Amino acid sequence: MRQVLLIHSFGYRAGPPPEWSAAPPDVVEDVRSLINPYKLAEYHDLSGLDAPVREFVVAQPKAQQILDRAEARILALIDAPSRPILRAGFGCTGGKDRSVALAAEFATRAERWDADLDVVLRHWQVHERSGADRRGYE
């Protein structure tokens, strides 16, 4: 049976995705310790969906440590018959830059694992910066 790995990005300011109240994640990584690209002029109008922001965030040495730790924790759960759905979350302050970039990078990594696994990536708050009332999934 194929397992599903559900990966979320979110912002601590607005809170985690609502479905976590019924099904909490197996792994949550707080990525607020990484340098926030939003505070740098060249990235201010971008999000973690944009390649320059993702590259900036992922290039930070601490980002690699966070990704490696999350990977080890999820890999330990793969093939557990009682775990058809695995959940990982990455949270930053607003849920638009660091968490989005690391969740996307984690999904890319997971797709390369030699596992019978479907990878699903969801971004919870990435569109809020535009001023649109679009809190929800990308």
From TrEMBL:
Any one Pfam family match given in the protein's UniProt record, by short name? PapZ_C
Residue ranges of every copy of the RapZ C-terminal domain listed in the record:
5-124
Name used for this protein in its record: RapZ C-terminal domain-containing protein
